[in-house]
Amino acid sequence: MKVFCLGGAGKISREAVYDLVQFSKFETITIGDFSESAGKEVVAWLNDPRVDFVKVDVRNQPKTVTAMQGYDVVMDGTTISLNGLSTACIAEAGCHGINLNGFGAEDAFDETFRKKKKTCVAGFGMTPGVTNMMVMHVAEQLDTIDTVRISHGAFRPIAFSPAIAETTRIEYDPDLPDRCVYEEGQMVKVPPFARPREIQLPEPYGKTVQYIIPHSETRTLSKALQSKGVKLIEVRGTWPTPNMELLRALYDWGFLRNDPIRVGDQEVGILDCIAEYLMISKEGQCTELYGYSLHVEVTGTKNGATYRHIITHTHPPSDGSVKGWERLRAYTRNVGIPLAIGTEILAKGQVSGFGVLTPEESFSADQIFNELKKRDLLIHESVECISGD
Q1: Dihedral in degrees, nearest 10, Cα atoms 266, 267, 269, 272
Q2: pLDDT > 80? residue 88
Q3: How far apart (Å, rounded) are the C-alpha atoms in residues 329 and 380?
Q4: What are the Cα distances from residue 232, in Å, to 60, 147, 183, 249, 386?
Q5: Confidence at residue 159, expressed as pLDDT on a 0 to 100 scale
Q6: Which of 148, 248, 305, 364 has its CA 20 to 30 A from that of 267?
Q7: Where are the domains of the chain?
Q8: Per-residue pLDDT reduced to its tens digit, 360-382
Q9: Is the peptide bond between 214 and the residue preceding it cis, with omega within 30 degrees of 0?
């Protein structure tokens, strides 16, 4: 089997490539990236004869398609803004594909994937991805679903890479149309910082106040759980407290609109200026606590009684006591590992169906949880009967 790791030199994607080297059966693992220096740095770091590098630019579709042809699967780690271009290349090359974001740009290429009898899994990291599996794990145990509340804490610097800075900006864009909750059969648009809710994450993270974010679980789970009668789906998230305080101030003062201003002879967006500063500042590159934490709460009925399931996940600490999980890697590995797991499952032909598929349509919870456990990413579940027998 051969895998093409698009954007594989990025801080998160290189961890997915690292996982493929450690656990997968791929015979060829090619890093395809725009940055030749970063790509070759990753090849040297991995030091494995299966790993090589090819320079690609998804804006040049013909050359990128040629580079991808002959690979079983493309593991797409490019940024949200490039996912339309990257998916177009994967579809045209006739490869299976899987990416981290799942914001919907992939849907336009569903017919192409179907015609070529290939599959594209849209959005499979921690969230979306593992969170979808957590919800489906509970859904299998219940007759009906009432509420689904997905929460996560991403404890990382606000701008340790351009992709992360872009994600931060997009998720809190005041004009974003896709920041929705699913409520009584309707998608309801909400503004940034909507519906605050206190979430108790596993230690060392503790209590956090989280807000609605525009992740694809709301859309995909509303379809997957339709037969269960689901009434409410909310997806929340948080970053370290200083990050959230900064974002709140930027929102309150209108900076998140990215209004154009004049600096010397140039017109630039005010938020673009702030993002550039954060990319070079100590404050933008560091945080006190590193890692990732998922919290999923589902209520529903079984045999006439109402239950509340809470599922969380834990990972090795970031304090240096576990080699390979130090500081930022405790965050980047959490995101990259599920992408790598999904990539190998897809390449092995274990996903049924062609076209653009959701995580729920692609994988089983037990399958993913078992693979996560091999990497010391552990799933914890508690069940409480809240009414009835």
Answers
A1: -20
A2: yes
A3: 22
A4: 42, 5, 5, 29, 18
A5: 85
A6: 248
A7: 2-122, 130-327+377-387
A8: 999 999 999 999 999 999 999 99
A9: no
Give the count of beta carbons closer than 10 Å to the beta carbon of residue 126: 23
Q: How far apart are the first and last CA of the chain?
A: 51
Q: For domain 130-327+377-387, which architecture applies?
A: 2-Layer Sandwich (3.30)
C-alpha to C-alpha distance for 216 and 368, rounded to whole angstroms: 19
In which region does residue 206 sit, left (phi positive, over 0), alpha (psi from -120 to 50) or beta (all else)? left
Residue 116, number of CB atoms within 10 A of its CB? 16
pLDDT at 151: 98
| Among 258, 221, 201, CA closest to 380 | 201
Q: Which two tokens stand for residue 263?
A: 């600096």
Question: What are the structure tokens assigned to 125, written together?
Answer: 């990291």
Strand partners, 76: 6, 99
Q: Record the pTM.
A: 0.95
Helices 365-374/329-347 angle, 10° precision:
130
